[in-house]
Amino acid sequence: MGLMPFSEEDSPVNIREGSGPATSPRCTVNSASDSPPRPRRSWRPLAILAVLGGVLLLAALGCDPDAPQSTFGVNGPVAREQLLLFNVLLWTMVAVFVLVEGALLYAAIRFRRRPGDPLPPQTHGHTPLEIAWTIIPTILILALGIWSVFVLFKLEPGEAIAQAQARGTEPLYVEAVGHQWWWEFRYPDADGSGKLVTTANEMRIPVNRPIIMTLKSDDVIHSFWIPKLAGKQDVVPTRANQMWFLAEDVGMYYGQCAEFCGVAHAQMKFRVHAMEDPEYLAWVAGFGQPNELSAQAARGQLVFLGDGQCVTCHTVGASDTVNEVGDGVQQGRMNTYLAYNKWLNKPAEERLEDVRTGNEPPAAFAAPNLTDLGLRTTIGSGLLDLNRETLRQWIRDPDDIKPGNRMSELAAIYQTRTDHRADLSEDQLTDLVAYLMEQR
């Protein structure tokens, strides 16, 4: 059966109290429900503002010119040219962005269509405007592109030679070799007399003298970067790349590998000590000169040559010689390491037979030259300040300081204990630390 009709007066929305008999009990409505609902507070705008504030704060901190690895506090002509190019490109793009987006926002607000407005006249092309916004960006891009090419020419080694001639000197040639995970520095002619110097992780250079770097890698792709002196340059296996820089002020400059190269990539740091020319020449003259060892250091030398087996991979008291084709002590060690890794991939029964017959290959690999270790300021590729205690910690358990390092992975003294710590007594550690700290 259908619903019975009712009049408008009998409509539920028009029934008032006392106007007639109630056909159904009325619901008592809480007076609080008569008030308008409170708007829900949204935290989304606050969250967005917090994120934007954090991004701006990080950007501001990254632009601090006094930060150790800031690209905004430059020193030398190479870094200065690169910073100028960066700033011009950046602020030109900012200006274009503001103009274009500003015009877009102005047009969207000023000429927005309001309710009741007729459809505006339809414009199909404006020849003068289109020519203008084609020619102006083209001229701008061409100008910036041509200038960038000129800057690139200034970054070539030929510019370093010209700078040296203008200063009445000769450029200093240094070869940087990237290893997993440390830097080797070779000076083929450190003082103009043909003296070879090999050091690691801390490079010493004279101020106001162009430095021409030849960059090589013994394993994977690295990237050589000294933010305050020069931009990044890839270090690629099987080829040699070149770059140059010049430090105008005495001081220490921080460097870093800027290309992911393995588990310890972030800990592949180095330092550049810029010093006056007499101080630099004194360092070169003293490099490799025999030291008169204390009694404790003499005992440490026996550990270095004997139970520690450090001499298998490290050199002390001399440069790592290099032949006419660029190979030398370190390259020989690297070849030995590659052969050892190849041997490890052989079936277990073949390796066991090689051990029984004495055909097991030696386990050596390229490692830092320690001739001037006592003059360095850091240990573990810049991870810790160098002193007797940190050096002791490094020798005892290098993996605790720098996970993934090759020393604890391959050196024999770390393979005989289950905790992979150095298999040396405390007295041997003390003597070995004394010997290495006296290497100056």
Describe the structure.
There is one protein chain. With 440 residues, the protein is an alpha+beta fold. The protein has two domains: 70-99 and 130-287, Cupredoxins -  blue copper proteins (Immunoglobulin-like, Sandwich); 295-437, Cytochrome Bc1 Complex, Chain D, domain 2 (Orthogonal Bundle), CATH 1.10.760. The protein contains twelve helices and twelve strands. It has helices at 44-62, 77-110, 127-154, 157-166, 277-286, 295-305, 329-344, 348-357, 388-396, 398-401, 406-410, 426-437, and strands at 172-179, 182-187, 197-200, 202-206, 211-217, 222-226, 230-235, 241-245, 251-257, 269-275, 378-379, 384-385. The chain has a five-stranded mixed beta sheet. Strands 4-10-9-6-7 form a five-stranded mixed beta sheet. Strand 11 and strand 12 (384-385) form a beta hairpin. The radius of gyration is 36 Å and the shape is elongated.
Question: What are the main properties of this structure?
Answer:
Immunoglobulin-like, alpha+beta, 5-stranded mixed β-sheet, 440 residues, 2 domains
